[in-house]
Amino acid sequence: MKRTLIFIALLITFQSSTAQLFTKEKVANNIDNIDQKFLSWGYFLGFNQYDFKFNYNQDLKDILVDKTFGFHLGLVGDMRLNDYLNLRLEPGVFFTTRNLRYDESYFAGSDFNDSDLLREVKSTYVHVPLLLKASTKRINNIKPFIIGGLSVALNLSSNQDNPDDNSAGQFRMSKTTTFYELGFGIDLYLLYFKFTPSIRGIFAFNDEIIRDSDPNSPWTGNIAKMQTRGIFINFTFQ
Question: Could you give the 3-state DSSP secondary structure of residue 6?
Answer without folding.
Answer: helix
